[in-house]
Amino acid sequence: MSREFTTVSKGIDRTSFPFKQYQRAKKFYWDPQELDFSQDKEDWKKLTEEEKHDIKMRVASFQAGEEAVTADILPLILAIANEGRLEEEMYLTTFLFEEAKHMEFFDRFLNEIGISSNIVSYQAENTKELFNEILPNAMNKLLHDQSPEAMAEAATVYNMFVEGVMAETGYFMFVEGMKKRGILPGFLEGINNVQMDESRHISYGTYLIQRLINEHPHVYDLVLEKMDELDKFRFAFKTEGGGAGKIEGETAFGVKYADIVAFSNKQMKVRKEILKRAYKQIENTVKP
Ligand SMILES: [Fe+2]
Ligand SMILES: [Fe+2]
Q1: pLDDT tens, 12-62?
Q2: Which residues pair with 276 in a beta bridge?
Q3: What sign has the CA pseudo-torsion 104, 194, 149, 126?
């Protein structure tokens, strides 16, 4: 059987969205090893125990999440490669590299501020089922099922929810509190870089789901159902001190829980609205 190679037969589609995003990823290169944590080390010594606890708790959940997305991305890359979507595969090659750098960044931060001990106990309960079961199950399913439904489920869990809602809300919590205080500049620079990478990752998920909705409109309902099903995993802080449902008060860094809830709600809404627009376009084109 002769195999056709895109680069030989027609060349790379340089105007395509995935290829342009691949170019952006190459241009925006950063090295976690080069971040300067000297001020962070000094700031860490002056933090209260409550503030240190807050950081350990959020970093533990982020680390678990970054490791999970690093470990679980391969089936999606394989599925896209098997479909011969070369530009998308090129875009996805940046994911694995960048998720690995995110892990390295958090790991280096912990080392630099002198936390070498086990922080497993700090990981938020609500992230365990999500990172241990829901995410790997959705991604590994692609090894034997590359149907539009399975592809949409993977992109919804990985890009829309874990990256687009959970991680984005996490950055908000870090950045809002620390920026106001003017502390941990190395950490904040790293978070800013991670966030830039993640916005490209989220935009791939949006692109993929929009493409799937274009080809198979019924996928839209499945994506919305999945987002609603995942909703229960938001808000780790609801179990912090005040018990379930807590939205009063603030974090150790002065970020109001009510603001975090509002931010997270907005993320959910925005993701759904972007996909709804894609669906509406299809609806309009198929109407007589
Ligand atoms: Fe990441
Ligand atoms: Fe990511």
Answers
A1: 999 999 999 999 999 999 999 999 999 999 999 999 999 999 999 899 999
A2: none
A3: positive
Q: How far is the CA of 247 from the centre of ligand 2 (A)?
A: 28
Closest-approaching ligand to the CA atom of 101: 1
Q: Tokens in use for 29?
A: 């290169």
Q: What domains are there in the chain, each with its CATH number?
A: 38-280 (1.10.620.20)
User: Cα(188) to centroid of ligand 1, in Å?
Assistant: 15
Taking only the tens place, the pLDDT of each residue in 235-258 is 765 555 444 455 678 889 999 988
Q: What angle do the packed helices 168-181 and 257-286 form, to 10 degrees?
A: 140
**Nearest to 37, CA basis, from 186, 190, 193, 191:** 186
Q: 236, 244 in Cβ contact below 8 A?
A: no
User: Cα of 110 to ligand 2 centre, how many Å?
Assistant: 20
From ligand 1's centre to the CA of 162, what distance in Å?
Answer: 10
Using CA atoms, how far apart are residues 10 and 31, in angstroms rounded to an integer? Answer: 35
Copy the structure tokens of residue 129. Answer: 């089922």
- Distance (Å, whole) CA 24 – CA 7: 20
Is residue 22 within 8 A of residue 94, CB to CB? The reply is yes
Instruction: Give residue 282 CA to ligand 1 midpoint distance, Å.
Output: 32
Per-residue pLDDT reduced to its tens digit, 221-239: 999 999 999 998 887 655 5
Ligand 2: distance of its center to the CA of 164 in Å? 9
**Hey, what are 264's tokens?**
């997270």
Q: Is the pLDDT of residue 159 over 90?
A: yes
The mean predicted confidence, pLDDT, of the chain is: 91
